[in-house]
Write a structure and sequence with these properties.
By secondary structure, the chain is an alpha/beta fold. It has 11 helices and 15 strands. The strands form 4 sheets. It has a 5-stranded mixed β-sheet, with helices on both faces. Strands 11-10-9-14-15 form a 5-stranded mixed β-sheet, with helices on both faces. The protein starts with 7 loop residues before the first helix and ends with a helix.
C-alpha cells in the first residue's frame, strides 16, 4: 500500500512557512534568493510570495536588484510586511520594571524602564508595569501581538498571577500581569518566574549540542533565592508553578542545627532591615573580605547553599548546577559552594552563569520572539489565500 500523499493545502502551508522563516532570518530576499535559501523551485517560491502578499504578511520593499545589460532580470526584494506585528517582553524585578518591544527579526525597537520603590506593593508595581508597557508599545513600529513577562516572584501557572509565599522578599502579592497587559496586546500574555526565564536563556546561550544542558538546575542567589529545574530540555514548573522555590528547603544553619535556607541569612545578620530580603552589600562584605571571619562566614553560607543543592540533586538528578544572581556568580562564593557540594554524597559540577546582563529578560525576550514568529506562520496557514 502506497503512503498517502500530502494534500496541496499542506504543501502550500509548509512552503509558506519556509519562505516566512527565511525572511525572518535574512530580512529581505528576492524570489530567486528565497528559492535558493529554502530549496524550493523558483515558480513555487513565487507562488508562495504571491499568497503571502495577498495575506498581508509579506510586502514589496521597493528595492530592486541591478539587472539588465546581460546581468539578468531585475529582481524585487520582499520582506515581512510592516504591520505584521511586534512582541512585548517585560521584566518585573526589585531593580525596576523593563518593557521592550521586538520585531519579528529579533531587533528591540523600543524600551522603557520604571523604577520601583522599597518595599514594593502590588498597586505601585501595577502602575509601573502599565506605564512602562504603555511607553514601549507607543514607540513600537506596529501592533503588539503578544506579551511575555518575567516576574521576580512565584507565578501561578494556570492564571499568571503572582503567588505570595511566606518570607518572599519581593512583595507583589496578588499582582495580575495578564490583566494589566491584556488591553495592550491582541494575543496572549505569558507569565513565568524570573529564574525559569534565566535558565532558559542560559541553556540557549550554551547551544543545542552542548553537554549537560538538557538536565541542569539553575540556582539564583540574590536578594531572594530561587531555583529552576530543567529536565529533558524543559523547565519543570510543577503542579501550581512553584517548583524550585528553595527558600524553605531545610539545610544546615550557622550553629549546625537544621533550619530553612532563607533563615540562615537572618541568623547571620545579612538581611535588609524589616524584610527577609538578603542585603547584597552586607553579604558580599561579610563573605569576600580578607581575614578568617569572612572565610568562616563564606564557608557557612556555602555549606547552607550546598544543603539545598543536595535536595535538588536528590529529586531532580541534574547533570550540573549553574549559579546565577548577584552573589552566586562571585568567584570566591562559587568556589566555596563548589567545594561544599563536592563533599556531598552525590556531588555535581558547579559553574557560574555565563549570562550576567538581564538574563531573565533575555529569556523572556527570546520566548516572545519565538511566539511571535510562530503566530505569523499560523496566520499564513489560516489565510484564505491558502
Amino acid at each position: 500500500m502506497e503512503p498517502a500523499k500530502p494534500s496541496q493545502e499542506l504543501l502550500r502551508s509548509l512552503t509558506d512557512e519556509h519562505v516566512l522563516r527565511a525572511l525572518m532570518r535574512q530580512g529581505q530576499l528576492t524570489r530567486a534568493e528565497l528559492a535558493a535559501a529554502t530549496g524550493i523551485s523558483k515558480p513555487t517560491a513565487g507562488e508562495s510570495v504571491r499568497r503571502l502578499v495577498a495575506a498581508g504578511l509579506v510586502a514589496d520593499t521597493g528595492q530592486r536588484t541591478a539587472g539588465g545589460r546581460g546581468r539578468g532580470r531585475v529582481g524585487t526584494y520582499y520582506a515581512l510586511a510592516a504591520g505584521v506585528g511586534m512582541a512585548l517582553a517585560v521584566s518585573i524585578a526589585p531593580e525596576g520594571i523593563v518593557a521592550e518591544c521586538a520585531d519579528p527579526y529579533g531587533a528591540v525597537t523600543a524600551r522603557a524602564e520604571w523604577a520601583i520603590g522599597r518595599p514594593a506593593r502590588p498597586e505601585q508595581v501595577a502602575v509601573g508595569l502599565r506605564a512602562a508597557a504603555d511607553e514601549a508599545v507607543a514607540a513600537a513600529a506596529g501592533p503588539v501581538r503578544l506579551a511575555v513577562v518575567s516576574a521576580a516572584d512565584p507565578v501561578d501557572r494556570a492564571t499568571g498571577r503572582m503567588v505570595h509565599l511566606p518570607d518572599s522578599p519581593f512583595l507583589l502579592g496578588d499582582l495580575d500581569p495578564v490583566a494589566v497587559l491584556a488591553p495592550l496586546v491582541t494575543g496572549p500574555v505569558t507569565v513565568d518566574n524570573d529564574v525559569n526565564w534565566a535558565a532558559r536563556a542560559e541553556r540557549s546561550a550554551a547551544g543545542p549540542t552542548a553537554d549537560g544542558w538538557n538536565d541542569f538546575a539553575y540556582v539564583y542567589l540574590g536578594e531572594g533565592l530561587g531555583c529552576a529545574i530543567v529536565s529533558d530540555g524543559e523547565v519543570r514548573r510543577g503542579h501550581a508553578g512553584l517548583a524550585g522555590e528553595i527558600a524553605h528547603v531545610l539545610t544546615t544553619g550557622p550553629d549546625g542545627e537544621s533550619t530553612s535556607l532563607i533563615d540562615v541569612f537572618g541568623l547571620l545578620g545579612l538581611r535588609q532591615p524589616g524584610t527577609t530580603a538578603i542585603d547584597l552589600d552586607r553579604l558580599l562584605g561579610a563573605t569576600t573580605a580578607l581575614g578568617p571571619s569572612a572565610t568562616a562566614t563564606r564557608q557557612t553560607v556555602a555549606r547552607s547553599v550546598a544543603g539545598a543543592i543536595a535536595a535538588v540533586v536528590a529529586f531532580a538528578d541534574p547533570a550540573q548546577v549553574v549559579l546565577g544572581g548577584p552573589w552566586g556568580r562571585h568567584p570566591l562564593i562559587t568556589e566555596a559552594i563548589a567545594s561544599a557540594v563536592a563533599a556531598l554524597p552525590r556531588p555535581v559540577p558547579i559553574r557560574p552563569a555565563e549570562l550576567t546582563r538581564e538574563p531573565s529578560l533575555a529569556g523572556a525576550r527570546a520566548s516572545a520572539l519565538t511566539r511571535l514568529q510562530a503566530d505569523i506562520v499560523s496566520r499564513a496557514q489560516a489565510s484564505p489565500a491558502n
